[in-house]
Amino acid sequence: MTTYLLADHLLNLVAPAAMVALLMAVFSRAFSVFFKSKRPVTQARTAHLAINFAVGACVLMVGLALLGRDGKMLTYVAMVIAMAASQWHQLRGWRP
User: Which residue range is the domain that position 57 belongs to?
Assistant: First the structure.
């Protein structure tokens, strides 16, 4: 496998994590305005994007290692749940 093909495969593996992290970073402020949250935002959008992308990419890698192939729905469900938990933690959702 050439370097180009390896890079292509790795980028396609983490593409869903990148898209979900981007959407979560963009819409996190919109949801806080919609739900009239009075809590201050703890981090910048880029920090939310980077942390959520790292969490999602790690879950996808673990899913690939455990299940033996990419693209299993169980891996995508686990990625979304892990990224949602990460976003909830970053926004300090446990506080009233």
Answer: 3-90
**pLDDT tens column, 19-45:** 999 998 888 777 666 655 665 555 678
Predicted confidence at residue 26, as pLDDT, reads 84
Residue 96 inside a domain? The answer is no
pTM to 2 decimals? 0.82
Alpha-carbon span 25 to 45, nearest angstrom: 6
Q: Which amino acid is at 93?
A: G
Tell how far CA 52 is from the center of its chain.
4
